[in-house]
């Protein structure tokens, strides 16, 4: 489905589309962020080329996710500003990042999302 031209959007629709575009662009930048690559190197399994060791369960896995120890969007406060999001997304060094297997990353994300949903329901 073709998106309507920007000039025809309401202010709210325009801001929503702009936010989506900015998040996508920041996600692309994240893929090339040097600390992310360093975590991937740190987690390489020396016994299995192409595999990595999860820093939580310590299992050797084919797929590794680089996770922010402190989420980019605070589960309690939500997304407060672009400045805070960018600061949390592009952490300085590797201390705020960890290499997690898909299972461990999924479990961590699920817990964070439970907190977010609880805040939304109970305000």
Description:
This is HNH domain-containing protein. This protein is mainly alpha-helical. It has one domain. Helices cover about 50% and strands about 10% of the residues. Strand 1 (about 50-55) and strand 2 form a beta hairpin. The protein starts with 10 loop residues before the first helix and ends with a helix.
What are the SSEs and their pairings?
Elements: H1 11-31, H2 34-42, E1 52-53, E2 60-61, E3 64-68, H3 82-89, E4 97-101, H4 102-122
Key phrases:
123 residues, mainly alpha, two-stranded antiparallel ribbon, 4 helices
- Rounded to an integer in angstroms, the radius of gyration calculated over CA atoms is 18 Å
Structural class: mainly alpha
Look at the structure and give the mean pLDDT: 93
- Poorly predicted residue ranges: none
The multimeric state of the shown protein is single chain
Number of helices: 4
State the end-to-end distance.
35 Å
Helix content: 40-55%
Main sheet: strand order: 1-2
Counted up, domains total 1
What sequence of helices (H) and strands (E) makes up the elements?
Answer: HHEEEHEH
Query: What overall geometry do the principal axes of the alpha carbons give?
Result: globular
Q: Strand count, sense and closure of the main sheet?
A: 2 strands, antiparallel
Instruction: Assess the beta-strand content as a share of residues.
Output: 5-15%
């Amino acid at each position: 489905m073709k998106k309507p031209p920007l000039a025809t959007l309401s202010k709210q629709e325009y801001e929503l589309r702009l936010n989506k575009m900015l998040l996508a662009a920041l996600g692309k930048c994240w893929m090339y962020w040097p600390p992310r690559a360093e975590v991937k190197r740190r987690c390489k399994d020396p016994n299995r080329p192409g595999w990595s060791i999860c820093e939580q369960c310590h299992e050797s896995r084919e797929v590794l996710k680089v996770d922010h120890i402190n989420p980019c969007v605070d589960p309690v406060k939500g997304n407060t500003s672009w400045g805070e999001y960018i600061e949390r997304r592009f952490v300085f060094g590797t201390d705020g990042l960890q290499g997690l297997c898909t299972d461990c990353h999924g479990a961590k994300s699920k817990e964070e999302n439970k907190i977010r949903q609880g805040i939304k329901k109970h305000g």
